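Need tokens for this chain, all 490 residues.
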Amino acid sequence: MFKETLSKDLTKLGRIEEATHDVAQSFAKIGLGLLFLVAIWAAASLVTGEMENRAFIIIAGVLGGYMAMNIGANDVANNMGPAVGSKVLTLGGALVIAAVFEGAGALIAGGDVVRTISKNIIDAEAFADGTTFVWAMMSALLAAALWINIATYLNAPVSTTHSIVGGVMGAGIAAAGFAVVNWPTMGKIAASWVISPFLGGVIAAIFLAFIKAFIIYQPDKIAGAKRWVPVLVALMVGVFSMYLMVKGLKRVWRPEPWVVFAIGGGACAAAYAILRPVIVRAAHGMENRNKSIRTLFTIPLICSTALLSFAHGSNDVANAVGPLAAIVATAGTGAVAAKVTIPLWVMVIGALGIAAGLALFGPRLIRMVGSNITKMNPMRAYCVALSAAITVLIASALGLPVSTTHIAVGAVFGVGFYREWWTGRRTHINHGRYRNGLKPSEKEDPAVRAARRKLVRRQHVMTIAAAWIVTVPSTAVIAGGLFWLTRLIH
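Here are the structure tokens for all 490 residues:
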């Protein structure tokens, strides 16, 4: 009895120590985040020198850094989560790759000119003066950052683009009325809430079904892998070549559609010619098991993850630095412009902020996307990555304003729900064989067991779907309230 009581007490003490360590670690991360914002304040103070409206610019710099940190903490998980969940990358390795390629994408291909109004959802000329516009942009930036921070705390991956769109819309309405909003554009954005995750899920499920039918459930898995893995990897190379041109380099280079398709097709053919003998040699002598086949997808998945991060850094850094660049330009000239040039120091704030947010607060959402929604392996993660790239290409061709977050998470859901359906179907088939005397006896009815087995955690589906639905209205309300508060203060 004494030993049992002592063991229980030691267990309780161990749990208390773990909880204390977790709390201390959380406070340490918050402290480092605050130090980063203080460093931005100091750097902005030095850079601005004797500029006009210097205080506005410094405050905006801190808000831009805060927004960039939240983008890194929340949005980057969509690229890294499947690779980490499938154990292709460790969490530390994913953080390093993401930080390097997100920063490189922001600085190399982030562009030197950005629109002051995200997605053209409001009319810049509707603002009465430059000061009103500056306050509106600051309110939008802070509202979007606060909402993404809340979503990250709740383990909900949300669209940072939709967050800033909602913030700009809410601040614009508060400053100039409902007529300032481009409602047809807002309608397209609302439609993308449904279209993009559904399309991403369907495409990911189709690829997973193909892999299962032609490789996994073949008697000779190695022969199937030798035949189809080179095709799948070459397809990934071609798709990501097009994705990089359409999404990753669009701020510095806009090729014609035929150029995009020609380069993508050429990259696909070249990759197949080069990689087929390599993959065939790698597959030779492998055991006829799924675990062996998965290793063939490891390097392609790592490369796709790096390219997704590069494209994300080049594209979504504008969500942090776009309003900041608009504030800097307007505060300096007093005039509201539709497009502004991004100073280098502003782009550096965006790049470093994304990397800092990823390193400090990104692991929560990486685990959520990578393992908490449904179980990942390299083949499923491959389907998610390829689906995300293809869906973005289709949306770009159709002119639909989609969210990469919605697409990637929708692809994860698609893979999980397809696995549920496929597992239930195979179990019912085997159950029929069992009743016909073709399967050994089991203690429990397989059909009943399959009906109970859920491979996608439903609570995460509801939480994430709810967060997506309320993102734009929530940030709009917060931004409008912040704008009215600033009006009362000044």
